[in-house]
Amino acid sequence: METMQEVRAVMDVASARNLMGELHVLLNQWKDTGEINKAQVKKDKAPMESHMTTMHEQGEAENHRPQQDTEMKNHFLESMTHIENYWEDLSERVEIGRKKTHRVISMLRSIEELLKKLPGSHQAKLQARYSGLRSEAETVMEYMMDRMKFQCDKKPSFFNERATSSQQCSSS
Q1: Residue 34 domain-assigned?
Q2: Number of domains in the chain
Q3: pTM: predicted TM-score of the whole model, two decimal places
Q4: How far is 104 from 89, CA to CA, in rounded Å?
Q5: What is the CA angle 10-14-15, rounded to 5?
């Protein structure tokens, strides 16, 4: 007959395995989402760069000052709308990232606490998997933080490029 400690150990092992499985799925989803977001950033950037070139070419080709002023105002309003939308989207991504990070860290802590309760034989069986997941979680979270830093650093320069392009258009 099994003792209460043995039953508890079996339940803790099952709980730890379930949490590790959930964490593995979550990390894979996060990695997949990261790739989608990277493609989205490239897609967002391309139309704006081509639009900058078009505005510059239009500014050189046209010598009508009133029409250029109207185009410049429209260009400015379009830029402002794009920037506002970008920051709203970035804020949402930061909040989602914060929640996912909190969930991953919480899961890692729960697994660690379960492992501490287990007898040595059970603990040894699960420790390698836990260490791998912990390492993978760290890598994924660092990658996502780097991507967020990149997005924060990259987009504000877009406005400066647009302003430079606008000034070149008006001086032509």
Answers
A1: no
A2: 1
A3: 0.61
A4: 22
A5: 115
pLDDT in tens, the chain (172 residues): 578 888 888 899 999 999 999 999 988 988 887 654 554 444 444 444 444 445 455 555 555 566 777 777 777 888 888 878 777 777 888 888 888 889 999 999 999 999 999 888 888 889 999 999 999 999 988 888 887 777 777 654 445 554 454 454 444 4
In order of 25, 90, 118, 120, 150, the CA distances from 146 in angstroms are 22, 14, 36, 38, 6
Helix-helix angle 120-171:4-61, to 10 degrees: 10
* Residue 109 forms part of a structural domain: yes
Structural domain for 10, as ranges: 4-29+69-171
Q: How far is 94 from 108, CA to CA, in rounded Å?
A: 21
Q: Is there a domain that residue 38 lies in?
A: no
Judge whether 10 lies within some domain. yes
- Give me the count of residues in the chain: 172
**Listed residue (112, 144, 129, 98) closest to 21, CA to CA:** 129
Q: Report the alpha-carbon distance of residue 79 to residue 161 in Å, rounded.
A: 11
C-alpha radius of gyration, the chain, whole number: 26
